[in-house]
Amino acid sequence: MFDRIFTSSSESGKPSLLRPRKGVIIGVGQVGMACAYSLLIQDCFDELILQDIAEDKVEGEVLDLIHGMSFLPPTDLKGGTLKNEGKDADMVIITAGAAQKPGESRLELVGRNVNIFKSILADVVKYCPNAILLIVSNPVDIMTYATLKLTGFPKARVIGSGTILDTGRFRSLLGKKFNIDPRSVHGYILGEHGDSEFPVWSLANIGGAKLIPGEWEDLPISEQNELNSVFEEVKNAAYQIIKLKGYTSYAIGLAVTDIVKAILRSQERILTVSSLINGLYGVEDICLSLPTVINEKGILKTVNLSLNEQEQAQLLNSAKVLKEVCDQLKF
């Protein structure tokens, strides 16, 4: 049909020298679709598959996005499953998971999400055995650890979004406070993506100038309070956004895209993602966030920061909080 529009080419049917980059997003809720939108407009994949148990919603989301494809770099977008359309994907991004119910404990929520992951990951292992897995579902550190245990994948290929968003919030708020482009603000939020996370004040700087040139205790109380208020705003940001609009989505979509680009383009960027830590700072057999070099292999190496005594104690506390939950899980 419409053959008159096109002319034949002697190169027709010649295989491409470059293999298309294929990604799968499992879960098309607010976070999953923010990821999909950001990945599409930043031209990350050649093929992008959306999967969810709510098949009608998948179809509607795909149609909505396809109608905008004339404004974007080309991507073959479709709904499907790991078994069929998503088979042999380069990356599988998991945003699926249960929402916490009123009165439900964190451990109860984790247990429900682990059960959800068991069925998802069985298909990942079967149909995408060489994929890099990016876990976004909360509690992300625990779900990243569970993914490692359930899949048996190498630790380099199982990555959690970790505190990349918290770090982004930290830099944005400090940039706003000092009227500086946040890309020129350098600082980290490490540990758990949750209540036990902590800022690395000893290394935070703007253009190389340390925010705290000496010891924290030497700062005037007024300045300590100002900086503490920035961190509290970072730590409570999700609660505030959820209270106002019901969910968070845009910023995590952008953060996930940063991780994906670092992998697909082998950028060797340092990002605060969650990965399995063994031995560093005394942390053993748990997933949490430290500055990590990301390339086409996934996790390349972890940066060994010179944390002060207080920060090392905070990191160990974060690991303890996560370990107490993980030790109660059954895989």
UniProtKB/TrEMBL annotation:
Membership in a protein family: Belongs to the LDH/MDH superfamily. LDH family.
Q: How does it assemble?
A: Homotetramer.
Q: Which InterPro entries match?
A: L-lactate/malate_DH, L-lactate_DH, L-lactate_DH_AS, Lactate/malate_DH_C, Lactate/malate_DH_N, Lactate_DH/Glyco_Ohase_4_C, NAD(P)-bd_dom_sf
Phosphotyrosine is carried by which residues?
A: Y239
Q: Where is the Lactate/malate dehydrogenase N-terminal domain?
A: 24-160
The residues responsible for catalysis, as annotated, are H193 (proton acceptor)
- Chief subcellular location equals cytoplasm
Q: What NCBIfam families does the entry give?
A: L-LDH-NAD (TIGR01771), PRK00066.1 (NF000824)
Name of the featured protein: L-lactate dehydrogenase
Q: Into which EC class is this enzyme placed?
A: oxidoreductase
Q: Please state where this protein is localized.
A: Cytoplasm
Give me the residues that bind substrate, please. Q100, R106, N138, P139, V140, D141, D166, T167, G168, R169, T248
Question: Which residues are noted in the entry as NAD(+)-binding?
Answer: 27-32, 52, 57, 97-98, 113, 119, 136-138, 161
Q: List the catalytic activities from the record.
A: (S)-lactate + NAD(+) = pyruvate + NADH + H(+)
Q: GO molecular function terms here?
A: L-lactate dehydrogenase (NAD+) activity
